[in-house]
Amino acid sequence: MARLTVATCQFPVSADIARNGRYVMRQMRTAKQRGADLAHFPEACLPGYAGTDFASHRGFDWELLRSVTRRVMELAGELGLWTVVGSAHPLTGERRPHNCLYVIDDSGAIADRYDKRFCAGDATGSTGDLAHYTPGDHTCVFTVGGVRCGALICHDYRYPELYRDLGRHGVRLVLHSFHAGNCTPRRAAAIRAELGEDVERLNRGGVFSHATVTQRAMMTAEAAANHMWISCPNTSARESCWGAFFVRADGMTTGRLRRNRAGVLLSAVDTEEELYDSTAAWRDRAASGVLHSGTVVDDPRSARRTEL
């Protein structure tokens, strides 16, 4: 029986690496004290998010980031706590770093690293994430307490192919880190104006941004369609688009933290739990390209599609 207790952590991510590190280590201790096997943190939570928390990586203190990361690794080993933490991974020369998650095992070693594959931005590479980061090219899969886990980052949520790919690797729990926050009141007002006040009442939770509506909705849909548990931490820096939350494999949100406030959310994963799964019989076949259930027939009444 595969069971796991996950701590989904949020705090106000900033450009202050040392402060971010103190938040991470404090919440790691809280997670362990509350019985967590794994602590999961937001996108770019150690260095801060380039383009939002700070302007660019020009003059960035990579040695300080390495030093703080080593301390996080040491604490993970001391606590015996798997830790998935958002960071940036420098590349050679003038190449832009990866926007990454370091997967640190319960001995304090880096078991793997996930590099955000779908960095937001246009084909010129000069806008959005692509102005600051180099996209990755690999799937990240690892096992904790008998539960097969995978990692994704923020804008990856727009590409359901990534969830299908994780399903083919046997993943049951997705650690999907976000940074949807640190939005100034002026920027928030501009987003609301762009989206239109007339649709606010039709979208539960309010139209703070596209992220407020689509990210939460997609996590519900991906969990139910792929029968996966999903942990969704976010920065709580004002204004945060939404509070960290956890989705069960049947698409039910089982916990949520308050927006704009640091906190740790504990959630249980039990892969033997009997949960509603309407796609169980056909999901693998659909993922392989057979896009129907049951058995098709060779029937002239079926073939003539322009007749009553």
What this model shows, in words?
With 308 residues, the protein is an alpha/beta fold. Helices cover 26% and strands 22% of the residues. The chain has 7 helices and 12 strands. The chain has helices at residues 17-33, 62-79, 160-168, 185-195, 210-226, 283-287, 300-303, and strands at 3-10, 38-40, 82-89, 98-104, 110-115, 141-144, 147-153, 173-177, 229-232, 245-247, 253-256, 263-270. The strands form 2 sheets. The chain has a 6-stranded mixed β-sheet with strand order 5-4-3-2-1-12. α1 links the parallel β1 and β2. α1 packs parallel to α2 (62-79). It starts with a strand and ends in a 5-residue tail after the last helix. The relative contact order is 0.16. The model has no long low-confidence stretch (mean pLDDT 94).
